[in-house]
Amino acid sequence: MYSVFRPLLFKMDPERAHSRILGLVGMVGGLAPLRELLRRIYLPASSRPVEIAGLVFPNPVGLAAGYDKDCTAWRGLSCLGFGHLELGTVTPRPQAGNPRPRIFRYPGRQAIINRMGFPGRGAEFAKDRIPPRGSSPVRDRIVLGVNIGKNKDTSNERAVEDYLACLRSFLDRADYLAVNVSSPNTLGLRQLQGKAYLRDLLGTLVAERDQLAADLEQPPPLFVKLSPDLTDHELDGALEAILESSADGVIATNTTIQRGDLMVPDPNQEGGLSGRPLKELSTSLVRKIADRTAGDLPIIAVGGINSVEDAREKLDAGASLVQVYSGLIFQGPGLARELVNHL
To answer: Which residue, 9, 51, 138, 288, has fewest beta-carbon neighbours within 10 Å?
Structure first.
């Protein structure tokens, strides 16, 4: 069915098409009969729960951050077979993001370049769209992560304030928090992956989480989303900071600014590249992280997953969970079910 509608969607501006689809999924998710129908259509035939960082994920397949930035469509998205959804990136204050156009599709390479720049309505808006854990069966049947970042006009020296604000907003709403220090589309953000920056940032966040979450049954784990463009030396420093701060895991990877031999039709287009050309780069980083941490640091792998074989490759490299985004756009809403059924 999706193969029929995809050519029509691909004739539209990518951001406009995405907004239309997200609005439709959000509307369906808000109506119980339609939500149940969607679940029956996309319910995987089998499931393999995965436990990491104290959380039990119903299956190993999730939706990556960036798809539902303002947390408006998670009810509908939760019916597509995913075991978890990562919402956001959410910033403390609303911001417009970078000028349009800022999303570019390359169907022949199953690739996307984006330079969104964390557009969104801010933490308070997003928080109001997510009920607290334990509030309803719809909320509790899926793991919801929230990806958090800093506002564009917040300096790196004050970035911790933005991350703390988001942590406080979602402490009782998110099952886990993903600390985004790796988007290439916010100027200077990737500097926060440096060992000194990252150690201080994560140490402060972990301490605040532990202090404020004392009364919570399950404090949300903190995962750190890393760039595929880190050198080996930079990766070693980032991993040392993550381990020293007692953060709970890694998400590998964000989009890449590399073009090189990735065979992108428009190599001069600015922004982060995702999709099939990112696959090997992402898998390589997953393998390096697993080797360097001897499997002691849980890894959520994302980047170029379009098939069961792609997902298995990530899991074999050392990941515990996988996430999709570009694959969902090119393969359609049945992708999660297909992956879960065959992993």
So the answer is: 51
pLDDT in tens, 238-287: 999 999 999 999 999 999 999 977 777 788 899 999 999 999 999 999 99
User: Of these residues, 183, 227, 282, 320, which one is catalytic?
Assistant: 183
- Residue-averaged pLDDT of the chain: 96
For residue 224, the model assigns a pLDDT of: 98
* pLDDT, tens digit, 9 for 90 and up, residues 50-89: 999 999 999 999 999 999 999 999 999 999 999 999 999 9
pLDDT exceeds cutoff 90 at 330: yes
d(CA 71, CA 65): 10
CA-based Rg of the chain, rounded to a whole angstrom? 18
Strand 143-148 to 176-180 pairing: parallel
Closest CA to 79 of 26, 132, 130: 26
Instruction: Summarize pLDDT for 183-222 with one digit per residue, the tens.
Output: 999 999 999 999 999 999 999 999 999 999 888 888 999 9
Distances (CA, A) of 66 to 12, 18, 83, 115, 184: 19, 11, 17, 11, 13
- Is 183 noted as a catalytic residue in this protein? yes
**Are the C-beta atoms of residues 69 and 117 closer than 8 Å to each other?**
no
- In the chain, the number of structural domains is 1
Range of the domain at 326: 2-342
